[in-house]
Amino acid sequence: VTATATPDWLTRPELGLCPCGCIGRRRKGSFVEKTMTGAAGVLRAAMLSDDTATGPGLLQRVDARVKVLALLASLVTAGLVHHVAVLAAMYVVTLALAVASRLSLTFFVKRVWLFVPIFTGVVVLPATLNLVTPGHVVVPLGTWFGQPVGVTAQGLTSAGLIVTRVATSISLVVLVTLTTSWSRLLAALRALFVPRVFVAVLGMSYRYLFHLLDAVTDMYTARKARTVTRDRDVASSRRYVAASAGALFGKAQALSEEVHFAMLARGYTGDARTISNTRLRVRDMVFALAVLAALIVTIGGDRVLVR
Amino acid sequence: VHIPDGYLSPATCGTFGVAMVPVWVTAGRRVRKVVRSRYVPLVALGAAYSFLVMMFNVPIPDGTTAHAVGAVLVACVLGPWAAVVAVSIALLIQALFFGDGGVLAFAANAWNMAFVMPMVGYATYRLLARHVSLTSPRRAVAAGVGGYVGLNAAALCAAVEFGLQPTLFHSANGTPLYAPFHLSQTIPAMMLAHLTIAGLVELALTAGVVAYLQRANLPLLRINHAAVPVHDGDVAPTRPFGWRWAFVGLGVMAVLTPLGLLAPGGAFGEDAPAKLDLRRYHLGAVPDGLARYAGFWHHALFDGYGFSHDRHPALGYLVSAFVGIAAIAVTVALVAGVVRLARVRRRDVESVPV
User: Fold this and answer.
1) Residues of chain B with C-beta less than 8 angstroms from the C-beta of A19
2) Which residues of chain B does A20 touch, with a Cβ-Cβ cutoff of 8 Å?
3) Which of B105, B93, B100, B54 is nearest to A16 (CA)?
């Protein structure tokens, strides 16, 4: 364990729900503590990827541009594959890559499988019934309004496809984000296809995200310190949330003005600069070719299975 | 409404990618023209703010909490095009760094939450907050309703995207390859959750923040409302209702009436007795009264919205539409005239000294 390692209590995984809160079971609890937990979660994720991106490992050594292209190609391939077995094989390969990149396998597996049951399990289980996916009934479950109800073969295949595809896709994204530092990722985006000004905005907003996150944590810590009993008054709590969100907007706007003046003072003319990319090395080429070959084999294998 | 990778086919994601490019280009250009060199810091902080707004837990009465998206809030304060860029970047950071929402599905998510949501929500807000001062409570309510409508529009888009997958992409034996639910299932499921809980949370946060800014930080609201007067007394008197637009709308609807020719089937209860499928109602014959009164009136000017024996059905619809509008207008004018006459009479009676 090195001195820069993320503290253990910060890396404890939480259930990855949709941030808009529309999917999954909502837990009861104080909105103050939940917001603070959320803020700590963002910080934790960022610190974790900072730790792992500089570590020794296979994917850390590959050029970010190659990784981004390989990620997109792999995601499209995972989207085009029509067999559960092929997708499962792809998932096993991501596990192997995680081990080769010295990522914590428990974290890597949990990150995916705590998310999948909630989002996909809730969504997919009803889809196995013939009410949603008509087809050959393999497990009859009785009747409903005079219609036979049961689990269909088509429904089971479809559920398997969704679960393995979502798991593979999430694993692929996590592999890249955990092994690539943010500045390299930005440079790669600029080198590939994203306009420079967009990359500049992206980089700056990521940087100031943490500054504003501090402000949020401060506001909510102060609120928690002032609160003696539990918050029961929903209306006043909601007013507090609105006021803190409004105050945060004021801070963000004032900060943007200051940053703008600071940029002007340093000679900013509206032209953004980012890290210049180094030339691709042999091992990047080898990695790119290996990924390409693997994806072609995957698609080919999938097509063979179709017949 | 964050769609993860694996639920949408690559073709769907590609379609939304192509659709979003002109939106992003337009948004970038529009925002840049207004704020010039301030563009990068302003939009960057707007994006960081959009990211954080999704983190605020809003307490709801059942003891749990929920999140808002905040796209309409950003649109109200910074303008809709700035919201498009800011929310897109927030979504990109979420997808690339925190695994919320897919990387391939990024364009579809951006379409729902960074384009449809701020645009629909902002249009609603503008419509409701017309001729209202900057500090009026109605403006905060308008922003809240905008948030509600915008979020539901985004949820509807997501539901349609999910629901089209099994129809468009399935294997030979009917196995859905991506999201398995049909439109008839995704739309009620998504809309129930969003029309009730998520939409109201969005409403509460958007209205609450605008109300807070009205109280505490008016200059922030000025960024996007430079010409709006601060107090109610300074608002220019509203112009009378634009009759011209009412006539334009009526005219457009009249011109579109031949579309009815394309519609299959008929409206329930409008069929002639002979065309009724009476077996379905376990009836052996057309009931006596129905048969007698169905053909009671034979003197219609445009029978079945047509004339000259259906030789020009579209023309028949058009003429029917305009004659119908004219007939209704004449009737309304007559009634209004009678009412006015009666009023004048009564006033005359009341003003007679006793």
Assistant:
1) 2, 54-55, 67, 94, 100
2) 1-2, 54, 67-69, 113, 198
3) B100
Per the prediction, chain A carries an average pLDDT of: 80
Residue B150 has pLDDT above 80, yes or no: yes
CA distance to A229, A242, B191, B200, per residue, from B186 (Å): 42, 31, 8, 20
pLDDT for B296 equals: 74
Dihedrals phi, psi of A173, to nearest 5 degrees:
-65, -45
Residue among B6, B37, B179 whose CB faces A169 most closely = B6
Nearest C-alpha neighbor of B113 from the set B54, B163, B43? B54
Candidate from B6, B182, B198 with C-beta closest to A21: B198
Own/partner pairs for B123-130, CB < 8 Å, 24+ apart? B124/B149, B124/B150, B125/B72, B125/B75, B125/B76, B130/B238
Nearest neighbour of B55 by CB, restricted to A35, A127, A158: A35
Which of the residues B55, B69, B91, B152 would you substitute to probe the A interface, choosing the one with the greatest number of A C-beta atoms within 10 Å?
A: B55
For residue B192 the two structure tokens come to: 């129930």
Model confidence at B194, pLDDT cuts 50, 70, 90, reads confident
Percent of chain A exceeding pLDDT 70 equals 82
Q: Which residues of A202-225 are buried (b: 16+ CB within 10 A; e: fewer)?
A: bbbbbebbeebbebbbebbeebee
Place of tokens 């007679």: B352
Distance CA B249, CA B259 (A): 16
The alpha carbon torsion through B138, B140, B146, B151 (nearest 10 deg) reads -150
Q: What pLDDT is stored for residue B227 in this prediction?
A: 79
Residue A15: is its pLDDT beyond 50?
no
Mapped onto helix, strand or coil, the DSSP state of residue B65 is: strand
Q: Does the pLDDT value for residue B312 go beyond 80? A: no
- Chain B closest-CA separation from residue A36 CA (Å): 9
Percent of chain A with pLDDT strictly greater than 90: 13
Tokens of A298: 């995957």
Searching chain A, which residue's CA lies closest to the CA of residue B221? A250
**pLDDT at B151 > cutoff 90:** yes
Distance CA A45, CA A137 (A): 44
User: Quick one: tokens of A306?
Assistant: 């179709």
Minimal Cα distance from B202: which residue of A?
Answer: A20
